[in-house]
Design goal:
By secondary structure, the chain is an alpha+beta fold. It is built from four helices and two strands; from the N terminus they run H-H-H-H-E-E. The protein has helices at residues 10-18, 26-37, 42-54, 63-75, and strands at residues 79-86, 92-98. It has a two-stranded antiparallel ribbon. Strand 1 (79-86) and strand 2 (92-98) form a beta hairpin. The longest helix is centred in the middle third of the chain and has 13 residues, at 42-54. The chain starts with 9 loop residues before the first helix and ends with a strand.
Length: 99
């Protein structure tokens, strides 16, 4: 469920209560479709998503939002970790795939 700040007006609280956090959005659908094709790291997912959005196959979205939505999908059990690799910067990063 979405949250409103304590000091927000009642309309904000009502709007937040009306949002179904588990619904499938176009961004979620695009990420699920990409991860169904092949396992990817977040870096690869952001690049693939950006390419898809560029040609009109997905709504425009920031890299941070793509990672946030992937995290939501993980919490929902729709994607899971299938391995670990090193990122371009040399840090360990997880590889994701649809569940």
């Amino acid at each position: 469920m979405a949250n409103a700040r304590v000091n927000d007006p009642i309309e904000s609280h009502l709007a937040a209560a009306s949002i179904d956090a588990w619904r499938t959005t176009p961004t979620k659908e695009a990420i699920l479709n990409l991860l169904a094709l092949t396992p990817m790291t977040d870096e690869e997912l952001v690049q693939a998503y950006s390419n898809m959005a560029y040609i009109g196959g997905a709504p425009q979205s920031s890299a941070q939002n793509i990672r946030t939505v992937r995290c939501q999908l993980h919490r929902e059990g729709k994607v899971h970790i299938v391995g670990v690799t090193k990122s371009a910067s040399g840090r360990q990063t997880r590889i994701w795939r649809t569940a």
